[in-house]
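Two records follow; treat each independently.
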Amino acid sequence: VKKRIASGSLGVINFVEGQYNFPYGGGLVGGQTNWKIPPRTDIAHNQAWKRNPSYTRSNAVFHQGIVIFTLRYLLGREVEEVTAFTDATGENKSIACLKFEGDIYGFALGSHMFPYGSRSITIYGTEGRMTGVDTLAWGSTGELEVLKLRSEEVYKDMKKVGAKAVTMAGGLYFEGEKVLEKVEYSGANMWVDTIEAFNKSIIEDSAVVPSGLDGLKERQISMAIFESSKTGKAVKVPK
């Protein structure tokens, strides 16, 4: 995705979005969340103290940070300002509107409130969009999809020959105007990759990615999300 953005194949990027939803709330059966049985109180995330507003656990906000870090990395741009809403503790749900450098806008959602929640990102450009469906999970999962307009030359030829206009999701198009591409995605073991990248930075005396400064920036953005949710106002992120 980062290579495609950098190459300009999606055109000028003007909007991004992402979600990281963690399915807490039901009991666990065979390691999977089951929403049809009562929550088990012996599981840490179902303990009552985590729903006490006097404690700020903020799991939804910090999971939301996974989305924001990924978008920052892909765009190579920093978040300048946020407007956000969270529940009392930021534990269960949080949504933030983001303003990136260069007037790129977007939003990020983090939640523990529903089953089958998405862990996906979408990049919108003037020439098309690219979506990573469930690619933010830690396992080798998900798929990449690119939806683009055909070249201007093909588009003009289609209009000349009277290509049939059809109404599809998202508006009025000519038949064959859109090109859908599935990109092979093998996934990754993020735990292994993280350790190997850290080891490599030591051996080669190179920069650690992500760095401590990246961690600091994520915390600054998270704090801006809390402040915006509390005050109901847009909050600028410190430079």
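The next record belongs to a different protein.
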Amino acid sequence: TFCAMKLERLGNICRVRNGYAFKSEQFVDVGVPIIRISDINSNTVKSENAVRIKFNPVFENFKIVNVDLLIAMSGATTGKYGIYNSDEVAFQNQRVGCFVIRDEEKLSSQYLLQALRFLKPIIERKAHGSGQPNISGSNIEDLVISLPSLSDQIQIANILSKAETLIQKRKQSIALLEELLKSSFLEMFGDTRSYSKNDVLKTVGEVCYCRGGGTPSKAKPEYYSGNIPWVSPKDMKWLYIITSQDKITEQAVKESSTTLISKGAVLMVIRSGILK
């Protein structure tokens, strides 16, 4: 059970500090790492592959340490965030913002990390500039978050972190199962690329009939008030398609290029990036 939460402007409890515009000619092989947007990955920021620079007291105001929370301020990944996870002191690049918590007794960095999961879409919408989207620190500080007590923040962050870990493990398990299915298929049926000309092979077109789908006119809402499932790419999330988000009428079938398919037909998306 959590205590009642109050809403708080993010800038009242932390500020977003901009980084420094380091120049490539300053980079060295051995030195202090500079964290750039490319170093922010999967909510974690590491320094292993970061470019480096000689230490200079001028850069002291841009220093980051372990558990500092960073966010991408420009580019295609504006809003991408992560916690710096290294014992090595580093500096932040110009395009990377750092959340500086004003009072550790009011805001937990781990809670803020979880809050950014929900704030990220808002941050992306606030980003401006078509070629190179970017967002200012003040835009982020104007966002409002729920702020329970510090003890509740820590408890909430722990629960959400455990859930996130379980989700990642499940994704890894699914990926391993996918690889197992592929390898099992090859073990059972072989790799067609290694067959010789003497082997009996058939093309897909020789053993089945393939046809395209059709879309009833969106200008006629009456087409989409029936109970016949009309499968589109957004429904292709499962191995077995039971129903669809959109339903059409018999009139739509008669007056458009779409056709009915029978149970057991294999469907494939052919005109988008998912190719499900």
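Discussion point: The CA atoms of residues 34 and 91 lie 5 Å apart. How would you locate this feature using only the token line?
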